[in-house]
C-alpha cells in the first residue's frame, strides 16, 4: 500500500487557501476516481482508491498544519508503511506560482507542516511534492499562505493541481525517482 498525505488546515475558513493546496490536490485526484472522504482515523480523514492494481490511501490530517506530524505518524504506523511508500503534498512559497518540485528527501525548507512530519518520523528521508503558491514579499508569510488565490492566479494553480494529479498516478505506478525525472 502507498499513502498520499495532502497537507492543509481543517475547516471551511481555510478552504481554498494557498496553505491548503495539498488538500486541493488529493480532492481533485479522488474526484477523478469518483471517491470521496468517508472515514475518519484518529486525527485524519482517509479514503482508499485502487490505481493500476495498487491500493492507495489518501490522507488529510485534521490538525492544524504545524501539527501534521502526529496524524501522519499514526497512519504510517497503523499501515506499517515504508517511508519510501509515502508522498507528502504541500505548498511552497519559495517556488514560483504553479511550478512543482518533487524530491525523494530533504529539509523542511521552513515549512512547518513538513517540519512537524520530519520531527515525528525523526527523518527527512521521505518523498514530497511541493507546489509553488507564489510569494508576496510585502505581506507577512502567515497572512499570505492563509490567503486565497486571485482570479489571475487561479488558472495557473488549477494547471498545477492537474499536473500534481498526474504525478500521483505516475508515482503509484513507478517510483519517486521516475517522477523526478519526468516532472521536475
Task: Write a structural description.
With about 180 residues, the chain is α/β, with parallel strands linked by helices. The chain has a single domain (about 1-184), classed as Rossmann fold (3-Layer(aba) Sandwich). Helix content is about 35%, strand content about 20%. It has helices at about 20-30, 70-80, 110-120, 140-145, 150-175, 175-184; strands at about 1-5, 40, 45-50, 55-60, 85-90, 100-105, 130. A 7-stranded mixed β-sheet has the order 2-3-4-1-5-7-6, with helices on both faces. The mean pLDDT is about 95.
Secondary structure layout plus pairing:
Elements: E1 2-6, H1 21-32, E2 39-41, E3 44-51, E4 54-61, H2 69-78, E5 86-92, E6 100-103, H3 112-121, E7 128-132, H4 141-145, H5 151-173, H6 176-183
Parallel strand pairs: 1-4, 1-5, 5-7
Antiparallel strand pairs: 2-3, 3-4, 6-7
Helix pairs in contact: 1-5, 2-3
Overall pLDDT confidence:
93
Quaternary structure classification = single chain
Structural classification:
alpha/beta
CATH-assigned fold name: Rossmann fold
CATH H-level superfamily title:
Peptidyl-tRNA hydrolase
Binding site for tRNA: 14, 64, 66, 112
Family: Belongs to the PTH family.
Organism: Candidatus Scalindua japonica
Pfam family, one: Pept_tRNA_hydro
Summarize the structure.
It is built from six helices and seven strands, in the order βαβββαββαβααα.
Task: Throw out a few tags for this protein.
single chain; 184 residues; alpha/beta; Rossmann fold; 6 helices; 7 strands
Amino acid at each position: 500500500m502507498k499513502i498520499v498525505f495532502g497537507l492543509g488546515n481543517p475547516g471551511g475558513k481555510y478552504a481554498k487557501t494557498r496553505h491548503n493546496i495539498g488538500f486541493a490536490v488529493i480532492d481533485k485526484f479522488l474526484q477523478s476516481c469518483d471517491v470521496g472522504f468517508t472515514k475518519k482515523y484518529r486525527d485524519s480523514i482517509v479514503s482508499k482508491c485502487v490505481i493500476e492494481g495498487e491500493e492507495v490511501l489518501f490522507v488529510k490530517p485534521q490538525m492544524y498544519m504545524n501539527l501534521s506530524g502526529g496524524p501522519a505518524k499514526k497512519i504510517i504506523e497503523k499501515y506499517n508503511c515504508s517511508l519510501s511508500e509515502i508522498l507528502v503534498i504541500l505548498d511552497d512559497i519559495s517556488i514560483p506560482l504553479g511550478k512543482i518540485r518533487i524530491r525523494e528527501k530533504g529539509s523542511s525548507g521552513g515549512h512547518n507542516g513538513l517540519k512537524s512530519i520530519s520531527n515525528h518520523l525523526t527523518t527527512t528521508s521521505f518523498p514530497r511534492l511541493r507546489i509553488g503558491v507564489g510569494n508576496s514579499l510585502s505581506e507577512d508569510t502567515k497572512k499570505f499562505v492563509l490567503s486565497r488565490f486571485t482570479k489571475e492566479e487561479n488558472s495557473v494553480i488549477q494547471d498545477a493541481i492537474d499536473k500534481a494529479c498526474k504525478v500521483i498516478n505516475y508515482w503509484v505506478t513507478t517510483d519517486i525517482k521516475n517522477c523526478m525525472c519526468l516532472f521536475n
